[in-house]
Amino acid sequence: MTEVSLTDVSTYLPGEPISADYYAQFAGSDELRDNLMFRAPRFRHHVGPDESAIDMVEHAAQGLIERHGRDVIEHIDVLITHTQMPDMPFYGAGGGIAHRLGMRPSWVLDLHNGGCAAFVLGLNVARKLLSSGEGRTALIAIAQNAAGQVFDQPGVRRMAQAAVPGDGAAVGLVTLSDQSPILDVECRTYGEYAGDMTLAIDPPRKWWQPGRGEGCIGFTETKITKVLARGNRQVPEVALAVCDRIGLASRDVDLLVTNQPNRVFLRNWREALEIPPERHRDTFDECGNLFGAGIPINLDRAISDGQINAGDVVLMAAFAHAGDFAGAAAMRWGGRG
């Protein structure tokens, strides 16, 4: 296979940080309030009231434009996007992002099934397309915009689940090169769990029907137990599969980057992979659960802070929704040239 690299990432966090006190003032009686899944981060960011997913991605792309030039972005061959809350329910943001950034890509793919593992899925798709001759460059664009739109609804913000998510966006530049080669990718679909993540509205109605009541994630103690068990198993499984194929023990990777649903998962994953906290990058207390944007935002922080150096192996892993998808990828970082 022709070598394909994750050449660079660039990110965006909307607005000023919002502290845990913001949600504490609204907190109501919630039987799940003491559940470990919903221990609030110190801060998170919220998308603006009139800020679209396309706006967020445009902001996130500025770092790439500054470092690589607008010409590189305008001549992207493959555009892969994932938006947690599409601005329009009938289509994704790919077309609008392409137009806003001045692109004329041959491929525009909006991925909805990747969820919190969307960046890994995007890497897998980009790698396959570029190595098979479908172009020389790809852009992966992720927008997480549910915190300020769904979880900050007046009725939802009283719930324990509302204080955990945060908003942010990220883009990854993938190129046909050996600069920062993607060493391996593992993606697995667990179709038996599809549909276990549900939208709860009181009184019940379909999400598109008019009526009273605001939509939130349908969590119960039983569902949480199942999701914890699946996530604890799936992320190490896909990560170890990648490590096995590249011939490197998980404890020897230089940096682990995962999605960050809560502190419990972060601790359990690094313990399962035998990676110390200082080599597992997260921004949970600064940004909350960033869903699909978590991996690229944390990777960008690690690069910018000098936490990884040229030649270091980065392992990325995540699971999605209630456990219906998981993915892992490894790359050898070549530095920001």
Automatic annotation (TrEMBL):
From which domain of life does this come? Bacteria
Q: One GO molecular function term?
A: 3-oxoacyl-[acyl-carrier-protein] synthase activity
- UniProt protein name: 3-oxoacyl-ACP synthase
For this protein, the record's Gene3D superfamilies field holds: 3.40.47.10
Q: Where is the signal peptide?
A: none
Pfam families according to UniProt: ACP_syn_III, ACP_syn_III_C
Keyword tags: Acyltransferase, Transferase
- State the organism of origin: Mycobacterium heckeshornense
Supply the InterPro entries for this chain. Answer: ACP_syn_III_C (IPR013747), ACP_syn_III_N (IPR013751), Thiolase-like (IPR016039)
Q: Which GO terms fall under biological process for this protein?
A: fatty acid biosynthetic process; secondary metabolite biosynthetic process
